[in-house]
């Protein structure tokens, strides 16, 4: 037996609770992982609270991230005791995930933990840091360099935003962090932001084309903010879009794309191909120093997850939420 968060939906309604579970509660898979650390992401918070239809199979253990050691395996690529991590692939949505003591998954979803990281620090990074790295890889693939100009990062105090600020600054970019939390300016500057702007500068409806400013951007917000980023990105620049914290809408025109050659790069962290996934995690292992990783993550217990999920959706959480299993 082991503890886990279980999301259920039946005639009594939608609910999440901390339960005693057993291996018989786990879905099919060829590798069983003893989960040591997980995380609480925005998507996990939606799954726990039921505020968005994230969970599509019931009952289900949420948790899109996990790290731990292999307990059982029928795939020779993963041996008992191997340190592994997982993020994405619909885990925590259609397949039970990491917010429990054990998880049974498909071996092709797993990565061996890169040298230089352990299970805890992998989860301090989690989907948020991994997504931020995918965004930066997209910018650089499209020719955006440190000398190209300023890079905007929206939702900068969130998990993706925090890592994007830190990783971009480490690579030599001038980062402008957009946030609605003026009291977090010191935190963002510590991560490497050279300037802080109020999110209101980007969140209100703007013109189809504005004054050119950004060489590139990492956006986890969506909506009007994403439209304004595109409208103010310099000729040939790239905006990497990976989230919808403000809105799923995109109230924009084609003007930035056909008049300035702006690229809107969509970032999918869930089903990213294995070679890309491995390259991103290897880069994270090389580039993130441990002090910075620890500064971005706050630790909670499995028992705290249900309460903290509501706080996360209410914008009361800074950076990452690391869950000790």
Structure write-up:
- With 325 residues, the protein is an alpha/beta fold.
- The chain folds into 2 domains: 144 residues, Medium-chain alcohol dehydrogenases, catalytic domain (Quinone Oxidoreductase, Chain A, domain 1, Alpha-Beta Complex), CATH 3.90.180; 140 residues, Rossmann fold, CATH 3.40.50.
- 30% of the residues lie in helices and 27% in strands.
- It contains 10 helices and 15 strands.
- The strands form 3 sheets. Strands 3, 4, 5, 6, 7, 14 and 15 form a 7-stranded mixed β-sheet that branches. Strands 10-9-8-11-12-13 form a 6-stranded parallel β-sheet, with helices on both faces.
- Strand 9, helix 4 and strand 10 form a beta-alpha-beta unit.
- The model has no long low-confidence stretch (mean pLDDT 96).
How do the strands and helices of this protein lay out in sequence?
Layout: E1 2-10, E2 13-21, E3 31-39, H1 42-49, E4 65-73, E5 83-87, E6 102-105, E7 111-112, H2 119-141, E8 151-153, H3 159-170, E9 175-179, H4 185-191, E10 195-198, H5 200-203, E11 214-219, H6 223-231, E12 233-241, H7 255-259, E13 263-266, H8 274-287, H9 290-296, E14 297-301, H10 305-313, E15 320-324
Parallel strand pairs: 8-9, 8-11, 9-10, 11-12, 12-13, 14-15
Antiparallel strand pairs: 1-2, 3-4, 3-6, 3-15, 4-5, 5-7
């Amino acid at each position: 037996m082991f503890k886990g968060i279980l999301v259920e939906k039946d005639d009594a309604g939608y609910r999440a609770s901390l339960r005693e579970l057993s291996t018989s509660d786990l879905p099919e898979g060829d590798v069983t992982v003893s989960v040591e650390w997980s995380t609480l992401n925005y998507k996990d918070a939606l799954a726990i609270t039921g505020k968005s239809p994230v969970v599509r199979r019931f009952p289900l253990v949420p948790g899109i991230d996990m790290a731990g050691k292999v307990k059982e395996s029928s795939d020779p690529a993963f041996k008992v005791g191997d340190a592994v991590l997982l993020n994405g692939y619909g885990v925590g949505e259609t397949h039970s995930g990491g917010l429990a003591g054990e998880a049974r998954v498909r071996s092709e979803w797993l990565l061996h933990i890169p040298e230089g990281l352990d299970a805890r620090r992998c989860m301090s990074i989690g989907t948020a840091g991994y997504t931020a790295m995918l965004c930066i890889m997209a910018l650089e693939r499209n020719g955006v360099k440190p000398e190209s100009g300023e890079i905007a990062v929206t939702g900068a105090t969130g998990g993706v935003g925090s890592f994007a600020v830190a990783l971009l600054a480490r690579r030599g970019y001038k980062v402008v962090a957009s946030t609605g939390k003026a009291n977090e300016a010191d935190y963002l500057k510590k991560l490497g932001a050279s300037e802080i702007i109020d999110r209101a500068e980007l969140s209100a409806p703007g013109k189809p084309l504005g004054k050119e400013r950004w060489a590139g951007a990492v956006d986890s917000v969506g909506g009007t903010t994403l439209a304004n980023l595109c409208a103010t990105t310099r000729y040939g620049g790239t905006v990497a879009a990976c989230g919808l914290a403000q809105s799923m809408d995109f109230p924009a025109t084609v003007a930035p794309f056909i008049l300035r050659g702006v690229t809107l790069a969509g970032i999918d962290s869930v089903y990213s191909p294995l070679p890309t996934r491995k390259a991103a995690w290897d880069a994270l292992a090389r580039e993130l120093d441990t002090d910075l990783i620890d500064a971005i993550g706050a630790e909670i217990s499995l028992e705290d997850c249900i309460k903290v999920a509501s706080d996360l959706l209410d914008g009361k959480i800074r950076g990452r939420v690391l869950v000790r299993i």
